[in-house]
Specification:
Elements (H helix, E strand, L loop, with lengths): L15 H26 L5 H23 L5 H9 L5 H25 L2 H6 L13 H24 L7 H16 L9 H11 L13 H21 L7 E4 L2 H15 L10 H4 L49 H7 L3 H17 L3 E4 L8 H25 L7 H21 L5 H9 L5 H25 L2 H6 L13 H24 L7 H15 L10 H10 L14 H17 L1
Antiparallel strand pairs: 1-2
Helix pairs in contact: 1-2, 1-4, 1-8, 2-7, 3-4, 3-6, 3-9, 4-8, 6-7, 6-9, 6-15, 7-14, 7-15, 14-15, 14-17, 14-21, 15-20, 16-17, 16-19, 16-22, 17-21, 19-20, 19-22
């Protein structure tokens, strides 16, 4: 078992039952319950209860089953965790099968429980595309929504195994995704959730639920893959992240490899006597048992430095070993004599040609420019992009659910990205934190730029996904002053709401940096602020959130968006200054 096993509890025993069967059974039952409740909730025909039912069910299942299986309940979550090094490849196959079977069983229960007319009215809970939504844009929407979900899982549950807010953060991400994408694709983000109801509804032929079913596989798989790649390359902490290290291959690596070859009676061409390759090793080594009477395979690389991602040769002793995270099949495959020979020939060739760079997986330097500036700025850019996208995608931008959408989004974004950048996603928050000495001025300027660009891109994605009629109906998600409201009162409203938000941020993060409830406190402040400002300004409190959609509306020349746009800059600026002065 490697150290990258945060989302699967393998138990104290090493039996196949404890490591694979028991977690897979948990995934089966969890997915069955999730699909059943999710499909039953569709009866309400109201996006709010539907989203909350799905999200809270996921949160409850993770809290209950997480200690057994990790509480994936979703094939693409399992895919993301596997790609990021969080579980065995072989175990993930069992997870996939259990989740798909659970989805079908849960959907079958819905078919059995509901009267036929009710069941047909909700299409059995199956997912179909919204009106005027092109399949290509639907794949993009599902990909982005799934990226948000899997990225949250990786940052809150995989990267930080002690994050007690992980179940809530993941559940809130599901709530937000469904509210945002309900009228576009239905916001599945889960092939098992889409596949089960589609199979069950095949009993009736009045609606072709399979016409665009591929959208609910292609989109989530791509979103999960991108999330895993970005996590591993940029946002993982400690030795979970891949990075480039400089070293001198001639003085270090050649010596180590030659020592390794010599200790195992191999020449530089990789010729390996078969009897030496298959010799027994000490019983205390962490081995994968081979069927009797074949001897145990020799382990290949130094045990203390090899991880589940990339191999490197290090250490004083040249004990060989198998990376257990690859599973028995792949572990033994890597020990085939001819494959070993080819790998070693390739390795020695690389050493001779090396210029001085290699990719390794170990603890990166603490005080690099990348860690201090680039990585936090990228986190602000991605967080702001996701935030503006999901807020603007919501079809009833001025409904009460808009407040829940914005607040819940902040909760899981801060829970995931807060440890990297502070989780601002708002120029007003960055300005206040900078004035209080929390962020260097030059870094703050980079934050501003990243947030503005993120807001523009998030709004542009909504512009591309929605048809013109749907886009204009929602004003592209732009915030505008309500009719009958004086601009001065609009500025005051935005100032007061921003004041409350900024003061909450400063008191929970600056005053007590390890406040465990800070994401919830900030998210709820945004929720009540958006609800309170609903009928006046829309409750923006965020210039990046207002600027991005306003710029996107220029394509269709929507009236009234820019007339009082200054309100969403002046109000937050005044509010942050007052909050900062009071805090200081």
């Amino acid at each position: 078992m490697t150290e990258l096993d945060p989302l699967i509890n393998r138990g104290a025993a090493d039996s196949f039952y404890d490591r694979v069967v028991r977690p897979s059974l948990a995934e089966f039952f969890g997915t069955t319950v999730f699909v059943f409740i999710g499909c039953m909730a569709v009866q309400t025909q109201d996006v709010g209860p539907i989203a909350i039912a799905h999200g809270l069910t996921i949160a409850v299942l993770i809290a209950g089953l997480g200690k057994i299986s990790g509480g994936h309940i979703n094939p693409v979550v399992t895919l993301g965790v596997t790609l990021s090094g969080g579980m065995f490849f072989v175990a993930s196959i069992f997870y996939f099968l259990a989740q798909l079977l659970g989805g079908m069983v849960g959907a079958a229960f819905v078919l059995a429980v509901l009267p036929e007319n009710v069941y047909k009215n909700i299409t059995g809970g199956a997912h179909t595309l919204g009106s005027d939504v092109e399949p290509g844009w639907a794949i993009l929407a599902e990909g982005i929504l799934t990226f948000l979900l899997v990225f949250t899982v990786l940052l809150t549950a995989v990267d930080d195994k002690k994050n007690k807010l992980a179940p809530l953060a993941i559940g809130f991400s599901v709530v937000v995704d469904i509210i945002a994408g309900a009228k576009t694709t239905g916001a599945s983000m889960n092939p098992a959730r889409s596949f089960g109801p589609a199979v069950a509804y095949s009993k009736y032929g009045d609606v072709n639920v399979w016409e665009h079913h591929y959208v609910y596989w292609v989109g989530p798989i791509c979103g999960a893959g991108v999330a895993a790649i970005l996590y591993k390359m940029l946002f993982a902490t400690g030795n979970r992240r891949l990075y480039i290290e400089r070293f001198d291959p001639k003085t270090v690596t050649v010596h180590r490899v030659e020592r390794f070859l010599k200790s195992h009676k191999m020449d530089v061409q990789g010729n390996i006597p078969l009897v030496d390759l298959l010799q027994d090793v000490p019983e205390d080594e962490d081995l994968i048992d081979s069927p009797s009477p074949s001897p145990k395979p020799c382990l290949l690389f130094p045990k203390d430095v090899v991880t589940s991602d990339l191999y490197s040769v290090d250490g004083d002793s040249a004990e060989c070993f198998v990376d257990e995270s690859l599973g028995p099949f792949f572990g033994q495959l890597l020990l085939h004599p001819y494959l070993v020979k080819g790998v070693l020939q390739f390795l020695t060739g690389l050493i001779e040609m090396a210029e001085g760079n290699t990719a390794v997986n170990q603890e990166p330097p603490v005080s690099t420019f990348f860690d201090k500036v680039v990585r936090p700025v990228l986190a602000e850019f991605i967080g702001t992009t996701l935030y503006v996208f999901i807020v603007c995608l919501y079809p009833a931008a001025y409904g009460i659910m808009s407040g829940i959408l914005q607040g819940f989004a902040y909760v899981f974004l801060i829970a995931g990205l807060g440890k990297i950048s502070g989780g601002h996603f708002n120029p007003a928050i960055t300005a206040a934190v900078t004035l209080c000495g929390g962020v260097p001025f030059l870094v703050a300027l980079c934050y501003f730029l990243a947030q503005m660009i993120g807001g523009l891109i998030g709004a542009a994605l909504v512009l591309g996904i929605l048809s013109r009629s749907n886009y204009e109906l929602r004003l592209g998600g732009a915030t505008v002053l309500r009719s009958g409201t004086e601009p001065g009162w609009g500025v005051l409203t935005e100032a007061i709401l921003t004041f409350m938000l900024i003061l909450t941020v400063l008191m929970t993060t600056m005053d007590e940096k390890k406040h465990k409830l800070a994401p919830l406190a900030i998210g709820f402040a945004i929720t009540v602020g958006a609800m309170a400002g609903l009928t006046v300004t829309g409750g923006s409190m965020n210039p990046a959130r207002s600027l991005g959609p306003a710029v996107s509306t220029l394509k269709y020349d929507i009236d009234g968006v820019w007339e009082y746009h200054y309100i969403y800059w002046v109000g937050p600026f005044v509010g942050l200054l007052v909050a900062t002065l009071i805090y200081r």
